[in-house]
Design goal:
mainly alpha, 266 residues
Length: 266
């Protein structure tokens, strides 16, 4: 079943999160926020996809930065379910980054890591031998590769939506957004010509507000409520952001999100 892809301007309440934000705590375990289904029953995501954000970074002319992503060999150190779920989100954003920049070996490495974490969380229905085969066959074609991986994530999302994996999905979404912002601000602060990157950073305020809304509406679970504490510093940092940001503000945002990211990946 094929997902309908959202445009980069689809707005925070309707666009995708690349991987998962599924089911909530009432009636069929649905997330208590509008997450509409398409006629194919694939569910739209609540914030822009990691691929959308990484594509904007790529189009801005920013160079690929080696070792900015979370090393795959750290995945084995994540033992708790919440840590696995948060870092499944982190690695999902990392996969989007390396794939968008057509880093072939890194794409295979992160795909393998995602499969292993998904296996641990029992959400790996679409991370299988067939997906790996398709990725290998299309490793030279970035656009096709992104489409293949995106569809696998869309189908995983629908699997979670149908199987009561709400807490896992919200944690994955949180990890993905944190890593996406970390990569974005890191590139911006190290660029000699940030240009459009400043606006990409500013535009993360609305997705953050939507993420906060999702967490608050599903905070009956302790592990979800803990995400509000985790994100509180970045929520406060973005409270003063209006339509754009300058380099001073980007550095402040980066410092805060780096600290939050370190709490997730360490």
């Amino acid at each position: 079943m094929k997902a309908k892809r959202m445009s980069a301007n689809a707005a925070a309440l309707l666009a995708g999160a690349l991987m998962v934000t599924a089911c909530g705590s009432q009636q069929g375990k649905k997330i208590k926020l509008a997450t509409e289904q398409t006629e194919e029953t694939l569910v739209k995501y609540p914030i822009p996809t990691a691929y959308e954000v990484m594509n904007l970074i790529n189009r801005s002319g920013a160079a690929y930065i080696i070792e900015i992503t979370n090393p795959t060999d750290k995945a084995e150190s994540y033992l708790k379910e919440s840590s696995k779920a948060l870092n499944l989100g982190v690695y999902s954003a990392d996969l989007a980054y390396v794939t968008t920049y057509n880093m072939k070996q890194e794409t295979m490495d992160y795909l393998k890591t995602l499969k292993n974490l998904s296996d641990d969380l029992y959400v790996s229905a679409n991370f299988n031998v067939e997906l790996a085969r398709k990725v290998e066959q299309n490793i030279e074609n970035k656009d096709t590769l992104i489409s293949i991986i995106s569809q696998a994530f869309d189908e995983t999302y629908s699997f979670l939506e149908s199987n009561g994996k709400d807490n896992i999905s919200i944690q994955v979404l949180t990890g993905m957004w944190v890593e996406g912002l970390y990569i974005t601000t890191y590139i911006t602060t190290t660029s000699s010509n940030p240009g459009d990157m400043l606006q990409i950073v500013a535009n993360q305020k609305q997705p953050l507000e939507t993420l906060k809304d999702i967490i608050e509406k599903n905070s009956d679970a302790p592990e979800i409520a803990a995400l509000l504490t985790l994100l509180s510093p970045i929520i406060d940092e973005y409270s003063s952001v209006e339509k754009t940001v300058d380099m001073v503000k980007v550095q402040q945002i980066h410092n805060v999100i780096e600290n939050i990211r370190n709490q997730i990946i360490d």
